[in-house]
Backbone:
């Protein structure tokens, strides 16, 4: 099946769409290789040689990854990425500025197909959903694909415009643009799905926009558990008695405090060296994935961040979750009235119970998995899609529950 068959949007689309292909200039690829080859890796220390204690990635891992990066075939990855239809379009944000938004899509010609917006997080990008799209192209034709699959790059990520310098941009601004994207594509009713930051975007869409009629999450922020939850339960959310104090619990989240409280510094630092960026993002790939696809995937993600110079413009949501701009707890706990589904993957770093999700949403469907981690779309694309498929079949057409249960 030719992917171009999936590239025709609805006749109801109002937006002007520009077909897009990833094409990194050769000089940028050569420059990256030169920087990787010339980069200095720190000397051995107690911390960076430990394999039992988790002080972050090891020196040996970084040296091995560096060697593999020097042999990395970016053009092969580019060819795979371009096997899925992509577009850009112009949208006007809440701040009045115009944004060019990039998205990957599989358009169905089936008359009753249901639109689903998939939102990624950090340190991911639209490529998290590439395996799922490849699976769907093999499984369906445009005439029987039951869904219109829309996968945008968040503003400031890869090929979507970054927030304007004078805009204090956050998740509500992303949701505004994404709702505008779906409406502009001709979808008066759609489903929002997401993990990581994408779960916050999907939740915001479900709370604030009538066109979003259902929400599916495969992650729920654990930092704001429902009111009445005791502190010990909150600390032990990840499971296991070794998470019995706040310092131990926060160890995997040191990066978030840096990105939320000192985004300028870390943004400047990691933009000076591809090896530094590899260490920072590679740590999360290794730590958060239950079955991470491998080093080639990490190198693809990091290379794309480097080529587009978007790490500094990708971390702004952390000001709202870890920094001084964090909203009141009531905002995160605001009721999601739309029918909500929740997939709980066994290897997720934040093992939020479905009962907590039920306290802040109209939870009508849930499923637990033994495996799979934070990057469910990459690690378990078939299982995640099956969950979304089952949820939508159950929830599409359900009415919102306007009041939180007593």
Residues:
């Amino acid at each position: 099946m030719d992917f171009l068959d999936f590239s025709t949007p609805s006749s109801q689309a109002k937006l002007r769409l520009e077909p897009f292909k990833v094409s990194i200039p050769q000089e940028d690829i050569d420059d990256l290789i030169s920087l990787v080859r010339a980069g200095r890796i720190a000397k051995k220390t107690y911390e960076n040689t430990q394999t039992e204690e988790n002080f972050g990635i090891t020196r040996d891992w970084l040296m091995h990854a560096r060697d593999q990066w020097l042999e990395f075939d970016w053009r092969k990855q580019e060819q795979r990425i371009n096997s899925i239809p992509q577009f850009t379009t112009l949208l006007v944000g809440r701040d009045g500025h115009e944004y060019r938004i990039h998205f990957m899509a599989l358009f169905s010609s089936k008359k009753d197909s249901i639109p689903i917006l998939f939102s990624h997080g950090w340190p991911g990008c639209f490529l998290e959903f590439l395996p799922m799209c490849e699976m769907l192209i093999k499984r369906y034709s445009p005439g029987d694909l039951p869904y219109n699959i829309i996968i945008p790059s968040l503003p400031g990520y890869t090929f979507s415009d970054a927030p304007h310098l004078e805009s204090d941009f956050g998740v509500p601004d992303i949701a505004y643009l994404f709702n505008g994207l779906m409406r502009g594509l001709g979808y008066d009713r759609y489903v929002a799905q997401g993990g990581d930051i994408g779960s916050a975007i999907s939740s915001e869409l479900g709370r604030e926009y009538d066109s979003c009629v259902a929400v599916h999450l495969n992650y729920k922020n654990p930092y704001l558990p429902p009111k009445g939850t005791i502190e010990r339960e909150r600390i032990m959310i990840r499971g296991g008695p070794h998470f019995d104090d706040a310092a131990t619990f926060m160890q995997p989240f040191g990066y978030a405090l840096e990105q939320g409280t000192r985004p300028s510094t870390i943004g400047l630092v990691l933009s000076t060296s591809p090896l530094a960026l590899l260490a920072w993002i590679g740590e999360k790939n290794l730590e958060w994935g239950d079955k991470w696809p491998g080093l080639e995937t990490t190198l693809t993600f990091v290379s794309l961040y480097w080529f587009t110079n978007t790490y500094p413009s990708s971390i702004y949501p952390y000001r709202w979750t870890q920094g001084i701009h964090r909203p009141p707890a009531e905002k995160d706990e605001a009721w999601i009235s739309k029918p909500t589904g929740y997939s709980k993957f066994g290897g997720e770093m934040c093992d939020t119970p479905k009962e907590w999700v039920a306290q802040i949403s109209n939870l009508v469907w849930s499923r637990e998995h033994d495996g799979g981690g934070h990057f469910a779309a990459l690690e378990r694309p078939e299982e995640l899609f099956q969950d979304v498929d089952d949820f939508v079949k159950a929830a599409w057409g359900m009415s919102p529950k306007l009041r939180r249960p007593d």
In short: The radius of gyration is 21 Å. Residues 3-22+82-271+309-395 form a domain with the Rossmann fold fold (CATH 3.40.50.1820). Residues 274-288 form the longest helix (15 residues). The mean pLDDT is 90.
